[in-house]
Amino acid sequence: MFKKTIITLAILTCYAGNNHLFSQATGDYRSNVSGTWATAANWQTWNGSAWIAAGAAPNSTNGVITIQSGHTMQIAANVTLDQVVIASGGTINWTAGTCTFANGTGVDLQISGTYWDNRGSATVNITFNAGATWNMGAAGTLMKSAGNSSNNWQNAYDGGIANIPTTSNWILRKTTAQNPQITTVGAYYGNLTIENN
Asked: Which residues are registered as beta bridge partners of 136?
């Protein structure tokens, strides 16, 4: 009986540590294949009893949006999101448009996989609406290739950026003429990597 209780507590701790539950509700979305975010065929939605083909791409008015392991979703146009979960092995590659996170229930962006801030403009920053937050999983990766500021990322971290896992990855990867910026005052990083291709 004692061992069973310990196992149950360990499982509950694992679920709570990821800031989301592994169940679905009507209106939740998940990636179906890799592709462009705005393409409805790349998504499935939960209808209350089964995952079915989505009639439209998800946005902040839908339920939890999960990028499944092995899938890369490209954000190439303006989008407002909420309750986004990037599972381990999943990727969001933001290449164009504006990406805004609305303040909804709980953490608004959970990165257990990879979020690539690959925007082609140094002047367009990720936007977190008032109260919107993001969180990094223990092995999550935030990669920045754009020359935009890191301040919005630093300022919107759930519970304060000092709580970012030390095992997470923050990568600055120079791939074009843009120079990915690093915030130094009051900033915290997990494993910080600076690359120049």
From this structure: 111
Q: How much is the pLDDT for 146?
A: 86
Cα gap 80→83, rounded to integer Å: 11
Identify how many contiguous H helices and E strands the chain contains and give both numbers: 2, 17
Alpha-carbon Rg for the chain, nearest whole angstrom, is 17
The CB density around residue 166, as the number of other CB atoms within 10 Å, is 9
Q: Tens digits of per-residue pLDDT, 114-150? A: 999 998 777 788 999 999 999 999 999 999 998 888 8
Q: pTM of this prediction?
A: 0.86
Q: Where are the beta strands (DSSP E) in 37-190?
A: 43-46, 51-53, 65-67, 72-75, 79-81, 84-86, 91-94, 99-101, 109-111, 114-117, 127-128, 134-136, 141-144, 169-174
Which spans in the chain are helix H?
2-17, 151-155
